[in-house]
């Protein structure tokens, strides 16, 4: 317990903003997230800044983009900006042949409206495979709407299906200003960050040198704000960013958070492929008698899952790779499952998919983040998160309701043999996984996935 107190003291030393607990709100569904998103766009008076992996050219994406443009036409002085990943914006969805990049839609909208909005592509690395913009957060005046979700049909529960995520609304001028300031300092007017709603988008090759310089700036970049000692009735919130393995403040804080567990840890990740350091921390907590709950999507709830009756594509092997990781982890920790100390909860709900990430520690600490808690997030992508410290338990009821909502469609794993293994998989999947194992490509895949 003394060690847990030490790690908690490290968290308490972090600079933070003191935020009224009554201004922290949890939304419980993709539909509610979309409804609130549209309402905040319509009511914004001075600024809108959206940062996401992508805004897709589909029904929901066009609805959001239309709302942004109409808000700008109604109030031309309104500062409306959208930042998406540079590479992702210029290709279609994986597995959708012939689909054009979203940048074409952005250019189409720019020609249609008298007052276009600003849309920029952020190239974290020279190639998408080596790292993307995975930063999250939408600011509307002084309100931050934070989710791991991107903007398309399934993330916004359009056309009958949804991808489940976490959704938080926090109203605080200091927090909103810190989020905007980060974008202003690192993205705005940077030669590596071009506009995507103009026809002359430079290629990644042409931007090679600016991207290298930009990457170094991102590695050093952090949220800047004046520290505010937490006042009674308020929670301490620390926004954090991180890129790369070395000196990554977000990664370090997540590990400190886990190691500060006194009684119980509740962790969500959509793609079970924990970084080795984080896996060690979790096992250490189990050995100390802490209760650990891991909420993971069933392989059929993975966004890359292809039902056996449909034609198989290589990308469809990913959910099985993640499941193989989970089976090995469950087998190695079966004793803790028997003891009730390790709860592996598998989420599945109809044909919907699972995209939750983040942590709760005891009843007073939480991390809201888009970080997938895997090697790719740990070392390649630009990530961010919000550390919440709530010693008065002002948010306990709100977060307990959120956890109950998350667990609504989960089943607890009683034994590792409940998870399928190689011989149970469809023949095309078996062939693919055997080839991966034979070539030892799984070592590289674990870093990139």
Automatic annotation (TrEMBL):
Q: Name one GO cellular component term.
A: cytosol
Q: What is its EC number?
A: 2.7.8.8
**Annotated PLD phosphodiesterase domain residues:** 350-377
- The answer, when asked if Lipid biosynthesis is one of the entry's keywords, is yes
**The keyword Lipid biosynthesis is annotated on this UniProt entry:** yes
InterPro entries, A to Z: PGS1, PLD-like_dom, PLipase_D/transphosphatidylase
* Record-given protein name: CDP-diacylglycerol--serine O-phosphatidyltransferase
User: In the record, what lineage is assigned to the organism producing the protein?
Assistant: Bacteria, Pseudomonadati, Pseudomonadota, Gammaproteobacteria, Aeromonadales
